[in-house]
């Protein structure tokens, strides 16, 4: 007999439609690793035959997800990419485990890798979590970032550098053979490295089409770092599934995105830019002058504008934030959702959907909704995130996190 759990007296944010939205007072029955029933009011269940968890009005929502994650960046990371890449493997692995645990404890049950510092960081961490050795979220593993000769990050010694479509196809195949399921390619620059401005475009249509095809053959997909319009347009027209940043969007980029509406996802990293232009990185040497040279002020405003356009067009935005810098510290991941409400004009429920409902289909996992049949990945928080999105950032309101129907985290400050 599989174990059944009844969650009583919950404010349920289903992220499922129909019926859409929120059940003010309801019950959820879990059977094994899945949701069996969701109901307004009380479910008629023999309470002696199930484990009953009375949450007394707390909000229950699907476990959150983040589509742009670097598990490799330690809790004390300070932009020292090369030293992390070259750190001794054993202590580094423990650093990565601590980050995975932090995601879970922050309410995140799904993370999508956006490139690792040491080749097997995501894969080995996922394997250890799946075996039950470590607490952590579900991980869609990424590998070493791939860039083009002469392009951004090519001279750091921590990327895979390719020169043409054949070369790129081989690099994609090699990573997929090790278990990577989301490849990360640099196809634009980034103003924070002034020699490689955001408008620069790297690689070309032939290369990207080859990468998309090869990843597809392995059941994986391509994600790209694309900040300028031309790089976004190229990614959309060549079949790239996950486009990170998309800070600048001209009419051509929007047209290509529109044509791919059903199988493209845009992951902005808005809180990162917000924190940068708000001076949060200054204590770590990112001076106003450096921000000025990066062009980040302009980029930030363009990104807010672009996200409003994408939202109007119904092109899916998925939450993801490049978290792990000291000015966007691990554990503060849900700040990304606050920025969507505050700056893009989303309702709190819409913002939550970017981290739940809309992520499931991207990775092909049956997660992100509370409906019968879905995997029971759940977050239980005090307060009402549908009226105040910031409650998701408060560790003291986080009661528990379930993954596959099991309590994967229970807040020790609330349950001594
Ligand atoms: Zn990143």
From TrEMBL:
<dbReference type="InterPro" id="IPR011059">
    <property type="entry name" value="Metal-dep_hydrolase_composite"/>
</dbReference>
<dbReference type="GO" id="GO:0016810">
    <property type="term" value="F:hydrolase activity, acting on carbon-nitrogen (but not peptide) bonds"/>
</dbReference>
<dbReference type="InterPro" id="IPR006680">
    <property type="entry name" value="Amidohydro-rel"/>
</dbReference>
<dbReference type="InterPro" id="IPR051781">
    <property type="entry name" value="Metallo-dep_Hydrolase"/>
</dbReference>
<feature type="domain" description="Amidohydrolase-related">
    <location>
        <begin position="60"/>
        <end position="406"/>
    </location>
</feature>
<protein>
    <submittedName>
        <fullName>Imidazolonepropionase</fullName>
    </submittedName>
</protein>
<dbReference type="Pfam" id="PF01979">
    <property type="entry name" value="Amidohydro_1"/>
</dbReference>
<dbReference type="InterPro" id="IPR032466">
    <property type="entry name" value="Metal_Hydrolase"/>
</dbReference>
